Amino acid sequence: MARRQITLKNCMFIVKDSNTILEDTDILIEDGRIIDVQRGLGGGEEIDCKKYIVIPGLVNSHVHAYSWFLKGISDSIKLESFFRKINEFSKETLQRVIYLSSKIAILEMLSNGITAIMDTGIFPKEVLKAIKETDIRARIGPKVIKEEDIEYIESEIIDIKNNSDQNKISPIIGIESISQLSEQSIIEVFNISEKYHVDIHLSVSKTRKETFMIKKNTGLFPIEYLNKIDILNKKPIMVHLGWITSWELNMIKNNGLSIIYCPTYVMKQATGGFFPILEAIKAGLNIALGSDSVFGNDSFDIFHEMRMCVYLQRNNYWSTSFNGKDVFRMATINGYNILHERGGIIDHGYLADVVLLNGSAPNLRPLNKYNLLNNIVYSVSSKNVFATVIGGKIIYSDELIEKFSKTDLSVIEDFLKNILV
Amino acid sequence: MFFVSGNPMKNITKGRAYRYYKGYPVCTLFSGGKDSTFALHWAVLKGFDVKCLLTIKPQSSESWMFHYPLIELTRLQAKSIGIPHLYYTSSGTKEEVDDLYRGFRQAIKRYGIKGMVTGALLSDYQRMNINMIAEELGLNIYSPLWRKRQDCYMRELVRDGFSFMIISISVYGLPSKFLGKILDNDDIEDIIMRAKIYGFNPAFEGGEAETFVVDAPLFKKVIRITGTPIQINEYNWKYMVKDAWLEDK
């Protein structure tokens, strides 16, 4: 079979990684991977990138795409009554809403330069359908909110495994909070994850209330408790950690766990915690960024998330030592590490997941090698994204916006009307 | 045009505006050292309505010997600041958290506070235990100094007009010359340098030293202290207070 080659010619700038910026250089891509990065390359389809900045694709490491239909209204509704109302609808309607929601959420993410997502939520089958249609790289799976959810996860994982291209899509399991689950149930979920070799994304110490409940019930802080019941050595991916203690961070370090941080979400939800990011970086931990659900974040945008992360952490510490380079790594390579993929860097052998930014946009001016990375962290908006390339294939460009505007959203609109009245 | 005849407060003391004008009711956990005094300072600048100070006198034998006279002096500080002072003696037999719980409940009962301001710097034991009690009682916790850069903070204290002295030392590398002395800029630089060399925390978070504030922007009167340093063992010094009184500023 002929190899599929693409050359990105004469790229205005290439952000190879957080420390290396190249000017006027070519990128050769073959079968979804980057083969070479240097001047004078050619072959296959050649794209003139004189006007474009090429950066590694961004990873949204923690998202619930299904929640997209709540955009802009999560402030004005009470969640309990909302979920009660939702249950009055037929399963078919809900599935349709969640499929459309997920699809648009993913289109939005593609338009924001996101090349890979890690998504857990309700009706993962519908989300999977949306993922396959949009062709984004994904880890997807069910989310355990209460004990009853556990009986379904096994079949859902098998379903995702059987119905997806294993290279691009594979299953994960999400756990909303361990305060809702018994020790037995937590262990059961981890046993399932071991059986099928899937990662667990574990949301821990998000709110003070959750931390309090666990301390009250077990006498231990959440990570201490997980350590006691031998969960930490099963390598869960830790999400949030706003209310952890220094000794809990040490336990995470001793087990070499990865962390996902969602700055906008914790701010908007007013969780009041303090994720000790400088200490976590010093401990050498792999920290990635996520947007989390629409309940606490109205845009699934990792550019925005990078900015928020720096702002919040600097304000927390009264110190500017956390910087653009740190957060750029969080948004790119650290996310790919959690995906278990070689990506997030533009170099030989890495995945050809890249984003083309419009280098002539006024909001990025003045632009040079020295301010480029900070401009990307602090100034880029989704409007600057010219194309999103995943596995060497252009998945998003202007054409997609047209397709997007034609999507029939009347099901969602009707659904919302019924709920919000 | 903007001046209203009569009492302008009359209108805004009704409804929402009233709550805004009075500020968010809080209590400051107050030990008389630099951190809790700074936290109080922060809360006032923030526009909070600091209803009371809460001090809990420890009762372990060591504390009883040496902290006793100094923690007593928080009464003088409270008098100088002019904020009501809740002062409790730890029962000694139970855990510290129980004493805190009782203190917090009293502050809510007497002053209707909704939040607690603490000077926690880096001790998660302190921060999280306080937060767990607060969660049970429905209080918000504000720890303005949490994980802030400690050398910057020490410099800022002196710059912002905090006069404080070191009253106990329990670390190698901090000489007894600092005992009972009101620290100036040079002393702070000296301490920051020593902290780097000898590897202790420049703001004494690990209990390397304890401080006592004799004057601060919110103090209406300054505290005068006389006393003598005494050596406990090789690196362990305490300042024994003989007398303390308030003086006009």
How would you characterize this protein structure?
- The complex is a heterodimer of chains A (421) and B (249).
- Chain A has 421 residues and is of the alpha/beta class.
- Chain A is built from 16 helices and 16 strands.
- In chain A, α2 packs parallel to α3, α7 packs parallel to α8 and α12 packs across α14.
- Chain B is α/β, with parallel strands linked by helices and 249 residues long.
- Chain B has one domain: HUPs (Rossmann fold, 3-Layer(aba) Sandwich).
- In chain B, the strands form two sheets. In chain B, strands 3-2-1-4-5 form a five-stranded parallel sheet, with helices on both faces. Chain B has a four-stranded antiparallel sheet with strand order 7-6-9-8.
- Chain B is globular and about 45 Å long.
- The N terminus of chain B is likely disordered.
- Chains A and B meet through α6 of A and α7 of B.
Itemize the secondary structure elements and their pairings.
The complex is a heterodimer of chains A (421) and B (249).
Chain A: E1 5-17, E2 20-30, E3 33-38, E4 45-48, E5 52-56, E6 58-63, H1 79-86, H2 91-111, E7 114-121, H3 124-134, E8 137-144, H4 150-162, E9 169-175, H5 183-196, E10 199-204, H6 208-218, H7 222-228, E11 237-240, H8 246-254, E12 259-261, H9 263-268, H10 277-282, E13 287-289, H11 302-317, H12 324-331, H13 333-339, E14 354-358, H14 372-378, E15 385-390, E16 393-396, H15 398-406, H16 410-420
Parallel strand pairs in A: 1-4, 1-5, 6-7, 7-8, 8-9, 9-10, 10-11, 11-12, 12-13
Antiparallel strand pairs in A: 1-2, 2-3, 5-14, 14-15, 15-16
Chain B: H1 9-12, H2 15-22, E1 25-29, H3 34-45, E2 49-57, H4 61-72, H5 74-81, E3 85-89, H6 96-111, E4 115-117, H7 124-137, E5 140-142, H8 150-159, E6 163-170, H9 185-198, E7 209-215, E8 221-233, E9 236-248
Parallel strand pairs in B: 1-2, 1-4, 2-3, 4-5
Antiparallel strand pairs in B: 6-7, 6-9, 8-9
